[in-house]
Amino acid sequence: LHSKSEVDAAILAGDLAYTGRDHRRWDTFFDFLDDYMAFETIPLHVCPGNHDIDKQEMSDELFLAYENRFRMPRIRPPQ
Description:
The protein is largely without helices or strands. The protein contains 2 helices and 2 strands. It has helices at 24-30, 64-67, and strands spanning 10-13, 44-47. Strands 1-2 form a two-stranded parallel ribbon. Helix 1 links the parallel strand 1 (10-13) and strand 2. The mean pLDDT is 77.
């Protein structure tokens, strides 16, 4: 990515971080964005995939690692 004039936005789609339930891996995976100054000015939309579900064993909560790191539309389980 060279400049904002070349790119209006970026989408990072699905299967973001294969964590094995280790949420620290999310932070490590996304540290790579720090290496690209373009992401300081280009909007980034992050979409979780099926490997990002991260279902909690003792509850019905899903996508907790994703939802705790990004201000995107929330993921809700079907009612």
